[in-house]
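Feature request disguised as a bug: please show the residue count (315) next to Ribose-phosphate pyrophosphokinase in the output. Example input:
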Amino acid sequence: MQIGEMKILMGSANVPLAKAVCEFVGTEPTHVTLKRFPDKEVFVKIDENIRGKDVFIIQPTCPPANDNLMELLIMIDAARRASANRINAVVPFYGYARQDRKDQPRVPITAKLVANLLVTAGANRVLTMDLHAPQIQGFFDIPVDHLYASTVFFDYLKKFKDENLIVISPDVGGIKMAAAYASMLGTDFGFVAKKRMDATQVEATSVVGDVEGKSVLIVDDLTESAGTLQAAAKILKERGAAKVRAAVSHAVLNSKGYERMQEGFLDELISTNSTPVDCRGLPITILSIAPLLGEAMLRINNHQSVTSLFRIKGF
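Example output, currently without the count:
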């Protein structure tokens, strides 16, 4: 299949990212009419011929998650009914990923439900980044290309290697990610033990790792209310950390998250543009994943391997 047969459709969830991907790929986005009826139903019309084309629909399911998910499903259905050859759902941020297991009675596994909806709508392939739980790939009966933000972060983070750096996971579940970043940066790693009080309140109880006088890099896949980051940063500074930064793949900050960021518990929050982020004059650095997504899309379009995209430059 030739690159000329690629068609990129933009959802409304993150238009700047979609346009940046199109610019990297070197093509114009396919024109799509997207509107809401008075009762808020979504209407989609693809205004160009996509019959037999390799279609990529860029739409993270970030807040408002339900609206953006429904829009994605309708766009996939429209592409299927327009006889697209292959429909690739490009979902940089996969909403509902935290509901990935039945950890109490009578609850759903919504991450699996969303996977079923995407497949039923007509998606042939999913391209995503830093799922909350990598095993979510197994919820799909279609190919999933799972990219990592670490490849984007590395060039920015390596300048801190001389600051007596240590990588810290803000909870026990993120130790594997922290170990990967520590290996990448050639530093030690540790973790913070925490106790969740409710959906927005977290209490850090202890630190494993020597952080006194060091520059700490907290790594996590996402932050919303910033409760975990705040609790971790507080105990790390109490234990003598000189600086505390956080590298988070998806900054889905809500009003509580921005409120906490204004308290200045972090020296810097580093994230990507997988979801729209309003920095609001806060110490937030946003790195673009457009080249990473664009390169992956080109390789998928040409039936090439995406494995090399997982490798860090110089490693």
